[in-house]
Amino acid sequence: MVQETYLITGAGTGFGKGIALGLAEQGKKVIAGVETMSEVSALVKEAKEKEIEIQVEKLDVTDPADRERAWTWDVDVLLNNAGISEGGSLVDIPEERLRNQFEVNVFGPILLTQKIAKAMVKKQRGKIVFMSSVSGLMADPLSGPYGGSKFTLEAFAESLSKELQEFNIQVSTINPGPYLTGFNDREFEAWRTWRDNPEERIFDYTQLAFPYEQFDPEELIKEAIEVMTGATNDYRNVIPKAMESMIKKRQKELWDKKTDENLGERHEMVQKSIDIEPATTPTKGIVNKIKDKL
After folding, report:
1. Entry's Gene3D superfamilies (predicted)?
2. Are 166 and 125 within 8 A, CB to CB?
């Protein structure tokens, strides 16, 4: 049997890196796509130190030349993991930052997927996985730019799954909850790159932080690898699974929401953004309690 080739984008850090190395440790043939040449060098060095065989390639999903080179690779399983998080109110975020959010999280991955999917169609087999988010299923204040990109990705993934089913190509999503990789906290630091007038902002971003306690990412990496390898064939994969009930409750609430309710009151998630410290993890004694609440 021919060994499958796995392509993981955004493999220089976080989930992507953990998944790429984890698959390679299992003996899978992995192409780790990273954004910059410095990340290529760093990941090659780390893999050598761990005695892991892995192919590392520069792959900025927003770079047409990088995408064209990636189309020459024979890919059986694609994980569209590359992404960024631009936090901030939708009335404050500068236009160029909002557009960049969608270039990286939506347009780059979809354009990369197009010709890889066509190659899979010719082979009549393949799998495409999108690293979405729980933020693609429910929207929080101050995360509208990021959530909007993930909601869009959810729609694209659903459409693609229906379009490609006749060609024997599987499509699925992974929807991580709050895991401590630095990604979530960077979302609430993105305002530092804005070129605007701070006095015109409606929020003081120096006082805000990611409003969820965050968990060890090893759990997600393990379960994401199961999605990639086919150990599970669920279309939607919320991790941790305990968050599913919270998401469904939040989605149902929108059907009953009134436009004039709670006007003049600060939203509870905005208040939590003010109250919580960055990179907060749940204390050991209340981890299960928090997961049960989720």
Report:
1. NAD(P)-binding Rossmann-like Domain (3.40.50.720)
2. no
